[in-house]
Every structure is written in structure tokens, then in C-alpha cells.
Amino acid sequence: MAVLPRSLAGQAFALQAAVIVLVVLAGSTLALLDVKRHGDAAARQQVTAIAVALADSPSTAKAIEDGDAARVLQPVTEAVRTSTDLAFITIMAPDRTRFTHTNPSQIGQKYIGTIEPALRGETYTEIYTGTLGPSVRTIAPVRNARGQIIGLVAAGITTESLAARWRSQWPTIVGVGIGALALSFVGIWAIRRRVLNQTHGLAPDELRVMYDHHDAILRSVSEGLIVLNRNGVALVNDEARRLLALPAGPISRTDLPEFLRGNDPGARDEVRLTDDRVLVVNRSQVSASDSEVVTIRDRTELQGALGELSSLQRFTDALRAQAHESANKLHTVITLVEMGRPDEAVKFATQELALSQQLVDRVSDAVAEPALVALLLGKTAEADERGIELTITEDTHLPAEALLSSQEMVTVLGNLIDNAMDACDRDDPWIEVTVNQNGELQIQVADSGPGMDTATFQRAMQRGYSTKSGADAGHQGLGLALVAQIVNRHGGTLSADLTYGSVVTVTIA
């Protein structure tokens, strides 16, 4: 039993070659049969046409009636027979006596064949074996002017001549078949080489195993994977669909987020934000093709943890600053007592304590969310340490049933205050914070900085922006983007303007 080649390309070539050989052989056989059928039909039509033409010729009837048929008609029939390549043309009397024949010695002899239908006035065709062997012949009646049958015309071609005509077509058909085979083999050989290059000579089973492994890896990998090419999106795994909220079925570039629609194959660990996720994107070009591979990691939970850690770190720094400041104040009180001025020591200590307690009481009364109270007090202490005047306005009021969760409130307000601390004017550093919910939630943070123009502000909301430079900038710039993410999730608005300072306002209805 024949064994197929190992590689997919070889098997495809072998199967295609077998199919082509069968098709060409079948086609050639059908062509030969068709030529034979058409040749036989054409021969019947030819002998019938010649027999009828001679029978209907007035000169034929006249020669028979004049009794001079042999002398007059023999040259005519031989000339016609020679020019038409027939085997014989015989003109005879109704009693079968031949007036003409290919072999002159047969003139005057009896015609061998069926003549009864012709004697009845019919034109009759048959295959019959006569003096020249088997032939296809037609017999037509000759009528005089009165319509009487006075003779018969038989024209025929031997079956051997028909076979010769058929065999003469063989070289052409065989040549065409061989040419078709040669051209087909050249084509499938080119296809084989192309498939061989594309499949690297792998066998079908190996390709199937590779596909199964490939599909399993794509489905199980924890990173999103997208392959882009010049035609659009070639591949998207399940994790990428989940992270980017892509629909089922084929994906086009227009379905991708805007930051993936362009061509940027050099991106490395680029942080991008969607409506509800923080993503780390890497893009690389495949050197062997025009494809681009995009990997996506979900950093949402990590970013949230980093934000909480940053808040704790800042709160720790604030506590440390307060401890340092408290130590200085305690030393001052102790020194005043040692100097014999206890009244001034008590006045100094109670005055500082009253101011601090007053701020705590006012913020606690205005804001019902403990986490936000702690954030505001911590930011106030941090700002004081950095020499920034941070004011919580009298308009601040937040009920217990806030439109944002405590974590979202801390993220929004904490990032806005951090941005304001980094951006405020160092010659006149001040920040004003207002948090109010009366039907709709409004968070407003103003600072003495120069602010951002519209284009910069839009870019900061989409991708992140930092006023810092150098190494610090690589870990900053997500604050406003994270705020925009929460605001968009709740259908709110985030705006910036320059009035009495740089003012950023969050409104959520």
C-alpha cells in the first residue's frame, strides 16, 4: 500500500497529483468518446446529404431514363466520392443493378444491402457489410418528373475510415492531456513549496497538536494577548476580551480602545486606563512578518493597593510630622515652666490644642465618612509640614449616604489634593478643598498653581500627567486618570478652569 509523505505539503502534493491525474485521464477518455460519437454522427449526416443531393439532381434521373446512366454518372460519382473522402457512391436501378461503383468491375452487378425503405420513398441509413467491408450507408430514392421511383443512390463510408478519423484525433487529445498534466504539476509543485515554507515541513498531526497547544495556552494564559497585522486584528485571546470588554466574534481595529488603534510597536510597560481598569501594555513587532504582538496585564487591584499604601505612607509621614511638631511644642512648654513662667506655658499648650481640636471637630461634624475625615486631617498635617496652607472650606458637608464609596472618595480627593500639592505656586502655596453633597456630589480642589490648558488636561485624564521630572515622573501621572476613571464610571463630569486659582471640579449626580 502506498504511503503518503510525512509533511502536510507533501501529502497535499500527492493528493492533488492523484486527483489531477484522474481528472485528466477521465477528461481525455470522455473527449475521445465524444470525438467518436460526433464523428459517427457527422459521417451519417455527410453520407445522407450526398446521397440525397445526387438523388434529387435532375441529371441523375435524366441519365437513368435515357439508359445511359453508367457512362454519364460514373465519372460524376467518382469525382464526388474523391472530393468528400467517401468509400463508395452507388447509383442503381430499382432491381439492385449497379450503374456506378468505386470498383468498375462491380458495375452491372447486384447491390448488396437493404433497399426496401428506399423503394417505399424513404431515405434510409444503416450499417451494413458489403463488398468494401462494414460501412455506414444511406440509400435515397431517385424520382422522375412524374414522381416515379426510377432508381436509388447509395453513399457510404467504411467503419475502418471512421476509426481512422477517430484515431487521428488521439495525438491532439493526448497532447492536450499531457500539457494539462505538466501545467498542473508545475502549479501544485509551486503550491507545495509555498505550503512547505509556511508549515515548516510539519506533518498534519504535528500541526494539529501545535494548534491544540496554542489554543490551550491562549485560553489559560493570565495575560491578554492581541496580534495585529496590516489587515486588522489577527488574534484576540479570552483574557484580552475580558480586560478590554470586547464583544464575541471577529474583532476589528475600531473595536479596540483608541490607544491600540495606532502603530506603536515600541511601547514597554505603558500604563493605560479604560473605564474600569488600569492596564499595563507592551507592544512588539514580529521581525519575520508585519504582525505586532500586544500583551496586556491587569494592574487594577495592584494600583488600588499601591494607592492605599501611598495613603498610609503619607498618613504615617503626617503622624511623624505631627510627632516632631508636638515634641518641639512640648520642649517649649517644659522650657517655659523651667523658666518660672507656668502661666505662659499653659496658655501656649492650650492654645495649640484648641486649634487642633477645633479643626478635628469641624471636619468630623461636616463629613460623616471616617475614612475621608482621616484623609483630610492627614493631608492638612502633610501640607503644614510642606509649608502649604490647606484650607477646608465652610461649604464642606458630606452626609453618611454619599454617592461614592469610601474607597472611591479617598481615591478621588486624595489624588486631587496630591496633584494640587505638587502643582501649587512655591512662592504662595495654598490649597482650598470643598466637598459637598446636596442632591449632587461636588468635590472641588483649588490651588495657587498655573493649572493646565484644555489639551493637557484631556491628555492627563486619558493617560496620566505629572508635573514631576526625572525618576519620580515614571511612577506618577496616574492620579487624574484614576479620578477620571471613577467619575466616568458614575456618569459624572470632571472639569478644570482658572478663576481665583487652578480649580478642578468633580460633579456626580
Automatic annotation (TrEMBL):
Transmembrane regions: 12-35, 170-191
So which domain of life are we looking at?
A: Bacteria
Q: Which InterPro entries match?
A: HATPase_C_sf (IPR036890), HATPase_dom (IPR003594), His_kinase_dom (IPR005467), sCache_3 (IPR033463), Sensor-like_sf (IPR029151), Sig_transdc_His_kin-like_C (IPR004358)
List GO terms (cellular component aspect).
Answer: plasma membrane
- Look up the EC number in the record and give it: 2.7.13.3
Cite the CDD domains for this sequence. Answer: HATPase, PDC1_HK_sensor
Q: What class of enzyme is it?
A: transferase
What keyword terms does UniProt attach to this protein?
Answer: ATP-binding, Cell membrane, Kinase, Membrane, Nucleotide-binding, Phosphoprotein, Transferase, Transmembrane, Transmembrane helix, Two-component regulatory system
User: Where does this polypeptide localize?
Assistant: Cell membrane
> Which Pfam families does its entry note?
HATPase_c (PF02518), sCache_3_2 (PF17203)
Report the residue ranges that make up the Histidine kinase domain in this protein. 321-509
UniProt keyword annotation of ATP-binding present? yes
> What is the protein's membrane topology class?
Multi-pass membrane protein
One example of the protein's molecular function in GO is: phosphorelay sensor kinase activity
* Enzymatic reactions: ATP + protein L-histidine = ADP + protein N-phospho-L-histidine
- In Swiss-Prot or TrEMBL terms, this protein is called histidine kinase
What organism, scientifically named, is this protein from? Mycolicibacterium sarraceniae
